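1st attempt posting a full record on here, be nice pls
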Amino acid sequence: MRINKYLALSGIASRRKAEELIKTGKIKVNGKVTMDLSTDIKPTDIVKYNNHIVRVSQTFVYYKLNKPKGYVSTLSDDKGRKTIMDLMRGVHQRVFPVGRLDYDTEGLILLTNDGEITNILTKPNSEIEKTYMAHIEGKISNDEIKRLCAGVDIGGYVTKECSIQLIESNEKISKLLITITEGKNRQIRRMFDSINKPVTFLRRTQIGEIRLGGLSRGEYKELNNKEIKYLNSLKR
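the predicted structure (as tokens):
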């Protein structure tokens, strides 16, 4: 098994992050640092990260969390800000977030020790739909919605086509449901900035077939069998 897949399946990081750990010399195989991504791990090999033995996880766990504003969706933060792991203290397995929501965005985020599904959901060409509820300043026109749906330049990158449903609009605020299939940094905020409509509220409500449901802010729960079956179907 390739070393990056081995590390991902062990639950210490996503496959992409595992490759960073390898390249920076933080992984040892049989007592020696390896920085070769093509390293093949055999059943008899001893793999260590931070001098602790790493083993492939035999049991995967999956959680969904309603992330509040004011939390970063990382394992730790060098600025001392609260992280979503502060909300997961009741979970005894080591889990890590699948992708990110920015500091000011709330809503659905998944956490797991399944590195393979993390890689599938976060790779740029995954085409997994993600739906958001957004509030923006002022009234928005049909032409502006069509322009956003067709793709806009958010600073050297033109977004893919997306779907936008107008829920409510008046002179003070517009409420919309937005479904995108990519996840550039602060993408939706930057999309609306391109038409001079600042986003005042943003919540992710769905990833693929997994919905936020009735989770309160800061609350988490394990995925049910139907949701886990959906995730496993993505591995085929």
